[in-house]
Design brief:
heterodimer; A: 113 residues; mainly beta; seven-stranded mixed β-sheet; 11 strands; B: 118 residues; five-stranded antiparallel β-sheet; 0% helix
Chain lengths: 113, 118
């Protein structure tokens, strides 16, 4: 079946702009995760959804970052007033249950000029 | 809080040689442990995972890892490297949340780039 998909694959924006990154999880997966991977680093956790609600948002770096999952499937990560330090690959993962293996999408590469 | 340390950001081996990628973890509670592989311009792919059953875990592509609680290690090995094994490898840990309902977030190491020479 289809894996986790993320759009766009690449996003270039200017400092101060607003961006939205989309994640389509594997069908039927109730748990969804966002991670951020900076150059030369391992992925860092941002937020975890169980269904429609954010079960753990402890990794969001500040209030410029926000994520939603209104119908319990697709999720959107929103970044306001982007900064150059936000440049990274944003990864989405989903799992069938909260204790199951996480399957990752290909990521969205965000570049803030 | 849990953490992961991968010793060696770059490992280089000859084709046919043993692959050993080191991972040590820190956790105050029993962890789940994972190895993921990332090929260039691709997403993370699960190689194998330890979930408190057998301490020797076999994964895809001939890789295996052994959970050693006394050493807090979960090193990844493969007896004979292949050119196609060249990639970046990440060790990760997760623990059960306070409510006992989920393993939630993964905490990753910095990654080890494996180069395989002909």
């Amino acid at each position: 079946g289809a894996g986790v998909s993320q759009t766009p694959s690449n996003k270039v924006t200017e400092k101060g702009k607003y961006v939205e990154l989309r994640c389509d999880p594997i069908s039927g997966h109730t748990a969804l995760y966002w991670y951020r991977q900076s150059l030369g680093q391992g992925p860092e956790f941002l937020i975890y959804f169980q269904g429609t609600g954010a079960a753990d948002d402890s990794g969001l770096p500040n209030d410029r970052f926000f994520a939603v999952r209104p119908e319990g499937s697709v999720s959107t990560l929103k970044i306001q007033r982007t900064e150059r330090g936000d440049s990274a690959v944003y990864l989405c993962a989903s799992s069938s249950t909260p204790t199951d293996t996480q399957y990752f999408g290909p990521g969205t590469r965000l570049t803030v000029l | 809080a849990q953490s992961v340390t991968q010793l060696g950001s770059h490992v280089s081996v000859s084709e046919g040689a043993l692959v050993l990628l080191r991972c040590n973890y820190s956790s105050s509670v029993p962890p789940y442990l994972f190895w993921y592989v990332q090929y260039p311009n691709q997403g993370l792919q699960l190689l194998l995972k330890y979930t408190s059953a057998a301490t020797l875990v076999k994964g895809i592509n001939g890789f295996e890892a052994e959970f050693k609680k006394s050493e807090t290690s979960f090193h990844l090995t493969k007896p004979s490297a292949h050119m196609s094994d060249a990639a970046e490898y990440f060790c990760a840990v997760s623990v059960l949340n306070a409510g006992g309902t989920s393993y939630g977030k993964l905490t990753f190491g910095q990654g080890t780039i494996l180069t395989v020479h002909p």
